[in-house]
Amino acid sequence: MSNPPRTSDEIRDAFISFFKERGHVLLPPWPLVPIGDPTSMFTSAGMQQFKPQFMGEEPPAAPRVVTVQRCFRTTDIEEVGDLSHLTAFEMLGNFSFGDYFKREAIRWAWELLTEVYRLDPSRLHATIYLDDDDSYRFWREVGLPDDHIHRRDEDLNYWFSFPKDTPGASGPCGPDSEIYYDLDPSRDPAEARLHTGPDGRPAGVGYSDRFLEIWNLVFMQLYQHPDGRRTNLPAQNIDTGSGLERVAMVLQGKRSVFETDIFLPILAEAQAVVGVDYLGGAATELQAYAIRAMAEHCRAATLLIGDGVVPSNEGRGYVLRRVIRRAIYFARKVGVREPFTHRLAAAAIGRLGGYYPHLVENQAFIQRALSAEEERFTRTLEAGTHRLEDLLERLRAAGASTIPGDEAFTLYDTFGLPVELTREIAAAEGFALDDAGFHAALEAQRARARQQGAFLKGEVSPIIQQLGDDHSNFVGYTHTEADAAVVAILRGNALADLLTEGQQAELVLSTTPFYPEGGGQVGDRGNIVTPTGVFLVEDTQASGGAIVHRGRVVEGEIRASQRATATVDLHWRRGAARNHTGTHILHAALRAILGTHVRQQGSLVTPDRLRFDFTHLEQTPREALAEVQQLANEKVRHDLEVQWRTTGYRQAIESGALAFFGDKYGSEVRVVEIRENSHVFSAELCGGTHVHHTGQIGFIHIIREGAVAAGTRRIEAVTGRAAEAYLLEQQDRLLRIAERLNTSPAEVEDRIDALQSELERLRKQAEQLARVQAAALAEGLVAGAERVGEAALVVARVDALSQDVLRDVADRLRGRLKSALVILAAEIEGRPAFLAAATPDLVARGVHAGTIIRAVAQAAGGGGGGRPDLAQAGAKDPSRIDAALAEGRRLGLEALSG
């Protein structure tokens, strides 16, 4: 490259080209949701996808690798809006798996920075671990001066694959060397060499904002044992990470990552939303902070949604929701009231789409997801704000000046009002907020959640772990019957030698054809027969590395170490297999019809039915569901072969197979494919059982589609004989309805339309009669109105068909009497109904219809209330209506006399 790279795209390409020229293989990045790694919520580092290779659990795809990894970290969410912090970023990384080590990593980093990026060498500094003399020597070899190499302790220059302060923690670790860029070389050079500042805190390179970290070279060479000892790993590895945003900031000569070409288009859209020239320097400090937060959070949300995360109240979805809502919160602080997140997402996709084409493909879905969440949070803010205002009014009346922490937590937890917004509104009204009480309530909720989580997850039985590895050889993909030995009998928390008839237990076999529950598919059922007895298997589960068969002895007795024949219930297995393959077909059909944003979020596969949860923002139109079902059954009719193969995890993903977030995958995975000619219709990583040809499914029928949570929909369907039985049942129901309507099935809809038209005509007729009734009732009550001073009081029991008639009577009385308090009662559908109404002049004098009607209803054993001018209530005992009206007259006289 004749000129040094300047744009972020050029920097990214230069990094990749540099390392490819040095024998590195470019591998695709992971999505932001780490597939097959349930221990992590998000992909937060470039090395994350290589954990199995660094741990020696899997062979690497190549000894030298280069990647560009999009990352998301939750630690800095509350800081975003300043000039430096980000939640989403791109990490450039080069990796070595037992190939090159410190010398090459340092030399190549120096070459890239000084010869390709052409950074001024005098502005580069390196930190190394205290006793890492090898790194010191290699930095001196490339020409870095001694006073630009700084030794630091473990807090800065040591990498751990585990929380280092956790007692007994173990795993790979090693020293690292970080590269810093001097943002202000005009300042005293001695600042770089400081170890401690005037305040006694660490200072100098690595601790001062003057020096920006732009690359970290990790030398993964040791293994820390639970007792704290560190020994050499079998191979020495290299893991590096260079933040694209920071490198762009340096090469483009900017004072902040937000001024780089990465963010400028998004900031330009954000400033248009706010209506202030941020880029021209016209924004206030608050406006500038809000614009940066809006831009960063909408960019991060775009990346998360693009990788399959949707807003929800738990887990990853909750973090996404928090990011989006924080952007909206800051936008509202600077006066934004119109929807804007979709606009910023479009700007972000325009900037990122060249390197991440999946964002362009899913742009419509991403924008809809953001807009739906924005609309939802806007309603939440309005409802929560009203509740907060009511709370402040109550506290003010009680003479309090502080919002209790539990009340603030209720606003936050139940009504979604951010505590920051609660604090801001309260301060404007002269109230403080009990932060300690709020955090105590928050921690109490977390403690409850931890207890519930531990209860739901349960614990692995240590007994199963004692059985060793010579058991549970699964042959169920090819066999539904197998000879085996009874390895163990488990009753409660103990091993047993003998089971007698009627006793329940769990059996572990040496070999089993029984599929254990997993991947949404229920466990197999069947029989285990020994020379002395029969064991009915009612469920099969995986536990502690074993496959356990749960059930009871139905004949004779079962002894440990006996030979046995294990036979799966074919009806049960075939039904589950049909539905599992049906689930794959429906998944592929949904992606084909609705879009590739559709991703599985969960499933249930039983012999009788299937349930499939997937990401989608709105109700699936009936026409689209019909297309999905039509496409699915087309693949069934074509009787396509269902194939499965075992391959490497990475090879499976690169071939296009779908994997599911949160599932744990080993180095070898099973891919289930459905092909039509050379085209792959469906390919998923799956350990379940399937039919051999799609024609064996018979027919797929979608029963219903509905919402599970925001952004998640659920389909329930049946296949094969269950689908046939369901359709026959529906046909029989249609015939019965037709008979009751005295018509044929083909004419049911016309008959229902005619009945609805007749009902509408009768409803209008009833409304007309009700108005006539109301007019007649009101006319009779006007003459009997009781005068109290200048006002009239009407207390009466009337014969009304509905509350609407009561309201109509009250309105007519107020119109005729001008100044009046009306208290009415009626028995409607066997229950007392009460209504009170007051004219505006009486409301101005303090008459409150809601207060009166509440007391009236209580006299009849009921309750209710309402506005000062109009209120209604109900009760259960019609015999107490007259007593309630007597109380109403007393209260009415008292109110008007006062």
Automatic annotation (TrEMBL):
Question: Which molecular-function annotations from GO does this UniProt entry contain?
Answer: alanine-tRNA ligase activity; aminoacyl-tRNA deacylase activity; ATP binding; tRNA binding; zinc ion binding
Which residue stretches, if any, does this entry annotate as coiled coil?
745-779
Task: List the CDD domains.
Answer: AlaRS_core
- Look up the record and name the cofactor or cofactors this protein needs: Zn(2+)
Keyword Ligase assigned to the entry: answer is yes
Cofactor descriptive note: Binds 1 zinc ion per subunit.
Q: In its UniProt record, which GO terms are filed under biological process?
A: alanyl-tRNA aminoacylation
Subcellular location, record wording: Cytoplasm
Tell me which EC number(s) this protein carries: 6.1.1.7
Identify the residues that the record assigns to the Alanyl-transfer RNA synthetases family profile domain, covering every copy. 6-729
Query: InterPro entries from the entry?
Result: aa-tRNA-synth_II/BPL/LPL, Ala-tRNA-lgiase_IIc, Ala-tRNA-ligase_IIc_anticod-bd, Ala-tRNA-synth_IIc_core, Ala-tRNA-synth_IIc_N, Ala-tRNA_ligase, Ala_tRNA_ligase_euk/bac, DHHA1_dom
Key words of the record: Aminoacyl-tRNA synthetase, ATP-binding, Coiled coil, Cytoplasm, Ligase, Metal-binding, Nucleotide-binding, Protein biosynthesis, RNA-binding, tRNA-binding, Zinc
- Catalysed reaction per UniProt? tRNA(Ala) + L-alanine + ATP = L-alanyl-tRNA(Ala) + AMP + diphosphate
Q: Any idea which positions bind Zn(2+)?
A: H580, H584, C686, H690
**GO cellular component, as recorded:** cytosol
Domains (record comment): Consists of three domains; the N-terminal catalytic domain, the editing domain and the C-terminal C-Ala domain. The editing domain removes incorrectly charged amino acids, while the C-Ala domain, along with tRNA(Ala), serves as a bridge to cooperatively bring together the editing and aminoacylation centers thus stimulating deacylation of misacylated tRNAs.
Q: Which NCBIfam families match?
A: alaS
Its annotated function is as follows: Catalyzes the attachment of alanine to tRNA(Ala) in a two-step reaction: alanine is first activated by ATP to form Ala-AMP and then transferred to the acceptor end of tRNA(Ala). Also edits incorrectly charged Ser-tRNA(Ala) and Gly-tRNA(Ala) via its editing domain.
* Family affiliation: Belongs to the class-II aminoacyl-tRNA synthetase family.
Q: What is the protein name for this chain?
A: Alanine--tRNA ligase
Name the encoding gene, please: alaS
